[in-house]
Amino acid sequence: MVKKTLGLKIKINNSLLNFIEIDLKKLEHNYYAIRSLLNPKTKMIGVVKANAYGSEVNSIAKKLVALGIDALAVAFTEEGIQLRNQGIKARILVFYPQTENFKLLISANLEPALYSKKSWRAFEKNILDQRKKNYPVHVKYNTGLNRIGFNPADSDWILNEIKKDAFKIKSVYSHLAASEENRPNEFSQKQLALFNEIMNDHKKNSKSETDFHLLNTSGIFNYPELHLDWIRCGIGLYGFANQPQWNKKLKPIGKLISTITQIHSIKSGETVGYNCGWTAHENTRIAILPLGHADGIARHYGQGNGWVSIQGEKAPIVGNICMDMIMVEIKNLPCEEGDEVEIFGTVNTAEAFADQGNTISYELLSGLGKRIERRILK
To answer: In CATH, which superfamily holds the domain spanning 24-246?
Structure first.
């Protein structure tokens, strides 16, 4: 591409130095692998919040709809509207809708999770103002995770309120705090017992047919007897299930690639990076990669925490992570400037790379910045 600027012809190279390769065939594998675990009548909610866990939400959502996903879920109203603008007509749940966006939510035909009396009243007002009836909503209960959700003691209040025509409760749900922990787990058992009470209250005292769901990805694997009417699958669709034996059934869909922009030969005793963060103990070489904490590779990497793959060999991250660059020790590895480097993907999975930085795959993936190009493999 050639662009004229101030009379000058400037050649612009559209290939970026950093990209995430997103493999939709692996997404398809994960979708069917998880479907195979479910009870035949259990439906699947595909969680695509946070740009589909840092990948590329439009492509992911369209693929899941094409595969037959029963519903999608996002965190906030704006995310649901983005999907509607992409032509997604599937059911979309909004887990954490903000009261000031209820009007927009309704206009986009999104389904909110109501989680407090305040959110209930605010949504009710919007529904009545727009003269809607039987609008689909979901009720979130807090059974111990202590984020958002109705107190279980509010169930009588909720059951009385749903007698009105404004709402149609499509599902009642909660969230386990330790779904990946080995069974038996005392805390999970308390949550399960409480949710059973909630389900019984709704079944006995509500005339409308209501679905129930409790499990995220880890719960799908760990509590097969509790799949209920729906499951909510997020990280599993992207290739991880929080336990090594469960991960074997899945394929990570993303591969993060960078490029060596410069190689330095340094002598024993010389330092690398801000605050002289790393000292060479022998004559060696380091490679500079154009990726940093502005792109989601945080400062808990470096100082030997984390490594990248160059020609299939480990190259440890040294020094402090910079905003736009990281430094890796390459010693005598056969590489040169311009070579591609795998940050995570095939040799070193995102989960393993996250663990090296004392974090989790969720944080690593969802934090990958907009400067990184997304390349979709269909």
So the answer is: Alanine racemase (3.20.20.10)
